[in-house]
Amino acid sequence: MTLTNPPVLTDVNPVPPPEPLAEPASGPLDWLRRNLFRSPADAVVTVVSGAVVGYILYRLGRYVLVTGRWEIVRANLKLFMVGRYPTDELWRIAVVLAAVGLLAGLIAGFIHQRHVVAGTEPARQPLGRRLLTVFARLWPLILGTALLLSLTSTIGPTVMVTAVVVAAVVGRLLGVRLPKGSLALLVLAGVFGFGVAVWFLTRPVGWDGWGGMMLNVFLAVAGITLCFPLGVLLALGRRSKLPLVRAVSVGYIELFRGVPLYVLLLLGFLALGFFIPTWLEAPGLVVRAVVVFTLFTAAYVAEIVRGGLQSLPKGQTEAAQALGLSTVRTTFLIVLPQALRNVIPALVGQFISLFKDTVLAAAAMGFLDASNVSGLANAQDAFRGQRLAAETLPFVMLLFWIGCITMSRESQRLERKLGVGTR
Amino acid sequence: MATTSRRPPLWRDVRVLAWAFQLAVVGVVVVVVFWLLDNFRVNSARLNIPTDLSFLDQPAGFPVPSSDFRQTQPVSDALIEGLQNTLRLVVFGVAAATVLGILLGVARLSRNFLVRNASRAYVEFIRNVPLFILLILMYTAIVLNAFPVPRDSWTIGPIAVLNVRGGSVFWFDGGNWRFVAVAVLVLLTLWLVARWRRRVADRTGRPARTALYALPIGAAVLVVAWVVVGLGGSAPALDGNRVTGGITMTPEYFAAFAALVIYTSSHVAEIVRGSIQAVPKGQGEAADALALSGFQRLWFVVLPQAMRIAVPPIGNQYLNLAKNSSLAAAISFPELTKVTQLTVANRSPAVPAFALLLAIYLVISLILSLIVNLGNRRLAIVER
After folding, report:
1. CA angle centred on B263, ends B260 and B264, rounded to 5°
2. What residues of chain B, 93 to 122, have a C-beta less than 8 Å from chain A?
3. pLDDT per residue over A295-325, tens digit each?
4. What's the predicted TM-score (pTM) here?
């Protein structure tokens, strides 16, 4: 057997370069083939599911546009949104919402500016493109607001929405000029502003005058704000090296995570009075609901914060100790700020779930929140016995959906921007 | 020069401070709890309300809808009825939500545009609305309003009949214990067949084809055992205005079940999608490189790894479903919470009754998380 030399690769006889991959054909027909009719089985799936989806869409469209009797929503729009809040005082709500818009604009502008400095976002974009981006981000909110405005009969709500938009734009323009470390200041302003807003809104009527979506939003915001200190303490306690402190924290967290919120709210409604000394007046229902939400959510927030604490590299604590910081300083200056930053998206998720759960407080305690307005509207003379829950309840659902989907999309965006999980 | 062995003064000794701090924390907790309990005791004594569980032996004084429970039976029997109803919701709800959720989660990753986006619309909508409103809508607007009167019931073959009074589904006939015996026998057979096929596959290297063997064998065992034990089947049928046969569902049960399954499945779907996407892309590509079919790729390579990621969060959803079953009280489905509300409305003391209720839910939660943990341990990668 003779050995032959392998063929020598020379410039005269090079390896042929690989064929460039064929560009995927692009046209409407190709799109259809790729996405709907990839194979015979795929075609069958498309036809069957297309028939089902088409039928559902047809029924839904017919219901929304033809058979649904939406007068009940139009007639009770104010009840759905703000309950029995006095009409003369509605400007207060407009002021608070404008302040919220301003704050949101400030935060958005500030975050944008930080990204411009870091070079991850272009500083300037054409106005049309920017409006398009905003619409792509906030379309549920924008379309929902447009729908609500189309149902109103007075000029007030339109003026209010305009004011909120203007405030948000002004905030966005000012936000880019804020100095570097202002985020904590903005968050503090939000918490402080929440207190002021509550004081401002309860001036004309007490808690009992609150209702509609306003009450749902308030319960959720109050719950998440108040539970926060307790939740952080419980998380620290659960991670503590001290056995008794850890036992108390674990017991609390597992107890509250193991029982249904609805039962706790019923307990707060029916039995809280037993645990209050006789010389103390039993608190009102809204306060009871806020207390239950606070105690309940604290357990969940504690678990979220614990996750953030665990995700932090041990080197951070050790470095702080090497610098001679005390345990308290290490915790509050080094560990917590980083841990909390990492769990912001999860906290937003908890807030969304709390927002949805506010309906339960109304069910257990009978507030006139958005879901209970549905029952009230169906009991009105004009609509009694007409079984219009099929109109009112989907409307309330839509309100919640707009709020939740907006927050969840924004939190996903924030998660990407903070780079949680990618660092 | 100070020796290192000299102890610092008591108020600067870290160990002493740590214990002092702990005792202070526990002290505060104990004082608060005792203060609350003392208030409870004083208030109960003032209002002459018992503080123990003696109410459980009193006659209930209220009926539990759609059960054999009589008003003269003690409260504890009513609570057991409620517990059964809760478990009925949880067990069937968990099973249905898992199946639907996995289907939806896989559909969200389909290459088919229509399937992918239909599933996405469902998940994104249902996940972002309150379960409670879904439940009320399901009950008042759909079951009680849009379902047909019994005469025009919707009939799905011999499997189910649905109408405004709830409906019936196919069910066995002839005693619970016989049914359990047959179920255990069939499951045992399936397990044995699976083990046998796995051993054959390990020994010979040929494909196991477990399903191909297990399904006919299991079906045969099921039929034989069903006949031998003397179990009957009862299919629902429409007889004029009445539905005969099958197991009857009240409209409340159907609404609560449907709402819980719809809501939980959307969350399960999102977890399944995330878990499948979390499986490293190379795994799927390796399966492609081995020329596995699309189904084989999903079933043997991607899903087992995705399940490992998905089990703990899906277990959390089961716990949520169990806790959310308490919402069915709002549409008067007589589960635990509703029965407790009824007994409190009938002169049972509120605090002990609710404390018992919370304890029962805690136990249910603990048992569920125990089951999930066991499953998780089986699935987890065995590391050195």
Report:
1. 80
2. 111-115, 118
3. 999 999 999 999 899 888 889 999 999 999 9
4. 0.87
